[in-house]
Amino acid sequence: MQFIRRVVLTVPVLGATLFSVASATPSTLPSVAAADTTTITVRSTSAALAFNPDMITVKSGATVRIRYINESVFSHNMVILKSEDDIDPVGAASFDAHDSGFVPTQFKERYVAFSPLAGAGKTVEFTFTAPAPGEYPYVCFVDGHFNMMIGKLKVVQ
Ligand SMILES: [Cu+2]
């Protein structure tokens, strides 16, 4: 078990590397990571600017895979931030971040993890290691949705 944990923790969680992990087909992911991963499904539906659920609880250090199913009529993404204070500055920059899926690359250090852009009807996945215990907001930074599409990741010991 100890060995498996160490292997999982070597999976990079930030920046461009996350995109390559998220876009990899399941068969190319290391099987040890898959066996030790908590998968959580999050949805958005119809025209509602909301995440369902809007509260997720995970254990610190766990490998978490978010499967974001966008059943709505809009494009969305899901960005987990280190602090609530990051929502406004990152949100202001998100309008100019089309090329990176509305995730401003200059704020990379403020993200716990983030999804690729999920067009209407699309499902995307991303994987990360749950950070230190605390509360981390997750928001959508597409087209100013960050004022309404807000959820909370609770990380417990
Ligand atoms: Cu959105």
Structure description:
By secondary structure, the chain is of the alpha/beta class. It has one domain (2-156): Cupredoxins -  blue copper proteins (Immunoglobulin-like). It has four helices and eight strands. The strands form two sheets. The chain has a five-stranded mixed sheet with strand order 2-8-7-4-5, with no helix packed on it. Strands 1-3-6 form a three-stranded mixed sheet. The radius of gyration is 15 Å and the shape is globular. 30% of the residues are buried. Residues 1-33 have low confidence and may be disordered. The structure holds copper (II) ion. Copper (II) ion (CU) binds at residues 74, 76, 140, 142, 145, 149. Copper (II) ion (CU) is lined by residues 74, 76, 140, 142, 145, 149.
**What's the order of the H and E elements?**
HHHEEEEHEEEE
Strand content: 25-35%
Classified by CATH, the class is Mainly Beta
Please work out how many helical segments DSSP would assign. Answer: 4
Which whole number gives the mean pLDDT?
Answer: 85
CATH fold description: Immunoglobulin-like
Structural class: alpha/beta
- Counted up, domains total 1
> Strand arrangement, largest sheet?
2-8-7-4-5
Number of DSSP strand runs: 8
Chart the SSEs and their pairings:
Elements: H1 2-9, H2 16-23, H3 31-35, E1 37-46, E2 55-59, E3 63-72, E4 79-81, H4 87-94, E5 111-114, E6 123-129, E7 134-139, E8 150-156
Parallel strand pairs: 1-3, 2-8
Antiparallel strand pairs: 3-6, 4-5, 4-7, 7-8
This protein binds copper (II) ion.
